Amino acid sequence: MGDLYALDFDGVLCDSCGESSISAVKAAKVRWPALFDGVDSVLEDWIVDQMHIVRPVVETGYENLLLVRLLVESRLPSIRKSSVAEGLTVEDILENWSKIKPVIMEEWDENRDALIDLFGKVRDEWMDNDLATWIGANRFYPGVPDALKFSSSTIYIVTTKQSRFADALLRELAGVTIPPERIYGLGTGPKVKVLKQLQLRPEHQGMKLHFVEDRLATLKNVIKEPELDGWNLYLGDWGYNTQKEREEAANISRIQLLQLSDFSKKLK
What we know:
This protein is of the alpha/beta class and 268 residues long.
């Protein structure tokens, strides 16, 4: 019956960290203009560098805005509004993001949906005004575009990115067209729910099911659902995860640690 691959996008197919960090800085300036008055280009470059390190904690794009502001507050005491920013290190963020995030959302009086809309709007404007540089701030991992193009497997994209951005990058940067009904983006529900929908489809009965993800927390959520026991689970070790998470994954029998070269071979 063949193989069905459900693939995460950011951190599995595409390294979008450069684009999302720059977009987050642009959006943060729109959302909190007064706070960003004191941010010069040197500090901006520092923020973008740090964002590459803390990227593994991001589940949904809007969190990039929170991280940008938190990094600024950690460097500029004069604008500090959050109780957690003083003495904060990137290691603290990697360890404790799930505890830090609700605190700053409340202290800054932020709304998740409003931040999602703003982040999408800033990206749309960048794409509309200068598609080439928006595309150029992303890169597909080596070998991935060809693996997608020539794959004999059935492929679905299951991502927390907004579908229109994943679709644009696949077409413009990878030269790959995946039918829109096979891209499950932000707003289609949690990934566990999408996997349940996919496995129930009549046309997928009897297929081998594979889910490739770079977030250990997401794979652990799948393991908690007995209904999803039929899925083969993979953690992409080239994606946005930490050494500590890879070591933890290696000790979980359901999860296979995957290298990029093996991933490309599997898809073919």
